[in-house]
Design brief:
heterodimer; A: about 425 residues; alpha/beta; Fumarate Reductase Iron-sulfur Protein, Chain B, domain 2; Rossmann fold; 3 domains; four-stranded parallel β-sheet; 21 helices; 8 strands; about 50% helix; about 10% strand; disordered C terminus; B: about 220 residues; mainly alpha; 10 helices; about 75% helix; about 0% strand; binds iron/sulfur cluster
């Protein structure tokens, strides 16, 4: 057995905790989960059944933890999982799973299959079986600090652009600010309206905030590829910067998995609770709204809907905030079928968007989104995740659908009342 | 061995052995799952985990509309089988007597005619699930020996019980002996098979509901 394979199998074994064992023990092979997964519904290929994606790990569980497995092992009768098997499963575990969490909603015995796949990825990486594209992104994030290779220099430049756009200062490395704003690489480089938008909103609401030149990247390739070590290192960078600047809150930007990484997995990855709170930008904006600090003076006339980012909504618990915010600006808002925690994934979460090999499959899976949107006659589709936004634009173009895609903060900023900074707090930065 | 001897063995030592394997097996397996433990979650919870977990244990029994529409047969046949099996097991007068001898508890039974219908419904549902497992691409793809074995050991007590009740095929004592033996087979296979889901589903649902619940999501 090669060293890597051994490491992989050991990792898989170590990833089996009580919930995993309960899930494996309970599966009745009913196949219900298949129909919750966009990769199955859009291809009809049974290999994309969520629980089937765990087959090698199930075998590890059976061999290591079940009576018959142990007996067979003692008698030298069991066939260990091979390197080839793991290689064969790479496509199932990465290309055809966005960790969207939809399967975990439907399993009759209650299995959280997404939790299982997330854990299986730990073993896959350890065995060296992760997609090339995702590996490259991970290396870039560790070495340069961002999946798109954004250096602190680039950030400064983008911040300067944002200052010009917003006509307001963009605070950088301001110690003692209340909030540390992170950005996803996509927001820094592609959706460059977001930073000026937030700058204007925060200015008006009198939020004391800052960017950090040491921790600006919110995305976490370690979470996507399934390496806790790397994920922990990336979270630690943010925690260190936040502690150094002594902020009270870290704002997780409009990026789904960044929220999962920072809000839910982060403290467990670094092994201690944070001395600050993590707040999703939509949560913060909704708070500002509730406190009357978000002043808007116009409305969107076209028909709007909201695409729920999986990690923010179903796996993150930020569900009603974007809707309450949209209520402030939308004249004609419609929910798509299955909206909310049952929404269907854009097809590019969980590292799929970083995996070029997966493009054709992802676009095929996007057909689910198309069906959800068909008949709604939308002008604009709003979302609150830069990766979803990217994937939605790609998918809509692929299926020749004429719908504009917008980020939530960007949209709110377009309708911001031109007024003086809010009375509460004032601009401290 | 004559029919009556077989029956006596099945009722006596057979049932004791099978019962012991079942009880010890189930306890050991559940303990093995729980003893694996899990790390304390250090993230700041939005809500507690206990109640959402318990809620999911109950609510997951009913599929959401979309999920039901996508696999109607599995859900309908699943319900009919599980309910039929449970009701015949718990509310057939002779079963109640047996359970009383073990637990000391007693409750009213259902009329035999109804038990008869429930058994037929339950068997029909299992047959439907069996056929569906053969022809549905997803379920066929997922199926392994254990799935067929579980179907077999589950249907046997129902079939033999039905035949005994209706005095069919074999003399009553013989059929009753086979019925009890088939139950013993079920009990012995139980802890080593996916039949464990009968108990472990509570853990699975609870973990799922608790994990989501502390994030403020009701699954
Ligand atoms: S829905 Fe649950 S029980 Fe059914 S096959 Fe999928 S994981 Fe197994
Ligand atoms: S998490 Fe989403 S993409 Fe992954 S298997 Fe489940 S339903 Fe499919």
């Amino acid at each position: 057995m090669s060293g890597k394979l051994e490491r992989g199998l050991n990792t898989l074994k170590a990833q089996i905790d009580a919930p995993m064992a309960a899930f494996f023990s309970s599966c009745v092979h009913c196949g219900v989960c298949a129909h919750a997964c966009l990769f199955y519904t859009e291809t009809g290929d049974p290999k994309y059944t969520p629980i089937y994606k765990l087959e090698p790990m199930r075998r590890v569980w059976q061999q290591e933890y079940s009576f018959w497995g142990k007996l067979a092992r003692a008698l030298g009768l069991s066939k260990p999982v091979t390197d080839q098997e793991l290689a064969d499963w790479e496509e199932l575990v990465y290309d055809s799973c966005t960790l969207c969490g939809r399967c975990s909603l439907v399993c009759p015995v209650g299995n959280d299959i997404t939790y299982m796949i997330r854990r299986m990825r730990e073993g896959m990486v350890a065995a060296g079986h992760a997609p090339k594209g995702l590996k490259q992104v991970t290396v870039r994030t560790v070495e340069i600090g961002s999946p798109m290779g954004i250096t602190p220099e680039t950030l400064r430049k983008q911040a300067a652009h944002a200052e010009q756009d917003a006509g307001l200062p963009v605070p950088l490395d301001v110690a003692g600010a209340d909030y540390l704003l992170l950005l996803s690489a996509n927001e820094t480089m592609v959706f460059t309206d977001t930073l000026p938008a937030l700058t204007r909103i925060f200015h008006q609401a009198g939020v004391s905030w800052t960017l950090s030149s040491e921790a600006y990247e919110a995305t976490n390739a370690g979470i996507q590829i399934g390496s806790s070590d790397i994920a922990a290192e990336l979270v630690q960078r943010i925690v260190s910067a936040a502690e150094k600047l002594k902020v009270k809150y870290v704002i997780s930007p409009e990026c789904g998995h960044a929220y999962t990484a920072l809000r839910w997995e982060g403290p467990n990855l670094i092994g201690r609770p944070y001395p600050f709170e993590v707040i999703h930008v939509a949560e913060l904006l909704d708070q500002l709204r509730a406190e009357g600090r978000l002043k808007l003076d116009s409305r969107e006339t076209g028909r709007l809907s909201f695409h729920d980012p999986c990690q923010m909504v179903r796996r993150g618990g930020v569900i009603e905030q974007p809707r309450r915010l949209l209520d402030q600006v939308a004249e004609d808002f419609v929910e798509m079928p299955d909206a909310g925690i049952h929404n269907w994934c854009c097809g590019g979460g969980g590292g799929v968007s970083a995996n070029e090999r997966a493009v054709p499959l992802r676009r095929r899976a996007f057909h689910r989104k198309k069906e959800q949107l068909d008949g709604l006659q939308l002008t604009t589709l709003v979302t609150s995740c830069a990766n979803c936004r990217d994937m939605l634009e790609d998918g809509l173009e692929y299926y020749d659908m004429d719908i504009e895609v917008k980020g939530l903060a960007d949209l709110l900023a377009e309708h911001l009342a031109e007024s003086e900074p809010g009375a509460q707090g004032g601009e401290q930065s | 061995m004559s029919g009556i001897e077989l029956l006596n063995w099945a009722r006596g030592p057979g049932l004791q052995i099978a019962g012991a394997v079942f009880v010890i097996g189930v306890i050991v397996r559940l303990a093995a799952i729980l003893l694996l433990g899990r790390k304390t979650d250090l993230s700041r919870p939005r809500e507690g985990a206990m109640w959402p977990g318990l809620r999911t244990v109950l609510t997951r029994s009913i599929p959401d509309a979309g999920t039901f529409r996508r696999s109607p047969l599995v859900f309908i046949a699943g319900y009919v089988f599980h309910l039929g099996f449970l009701l015949t097991l718990l509310f057939y007068a002779p079963h109640i007597l047996l359970l009383k001898s073990v637990t000391g508890l007693e409750w009213p039974g259902l009329p035999v005619s109804l038990i008869d219908v429930l058994a037929v419904l339950s068997i029909t549902a299992l047959v439907a699930l069996f056929i569906n497992r053969l022809i549905d691409p997803v379920r066929r793809h997922l199926s392994r020996c254990g799935d067929w074995l579980a179907l077999l050991v589950t249907v046997l007590p129902l079939v033999t019980g039905y035949l005994a009740l209706n005095r069919m095929l074999l003399p009553y004592t013989d059929m009753l002996a086979w019925h009890i033996l088939s139950v013993e087979l079920l009990l012995v296979v139980f802890p080593f098979s996916k039949l464990m889901h009968t108990f472990s589903f509570v853990l699975a649902r609870w973990y799922n509901g608790a994990i989501a619940g502390r994030k403020g999501v009701q699954v």
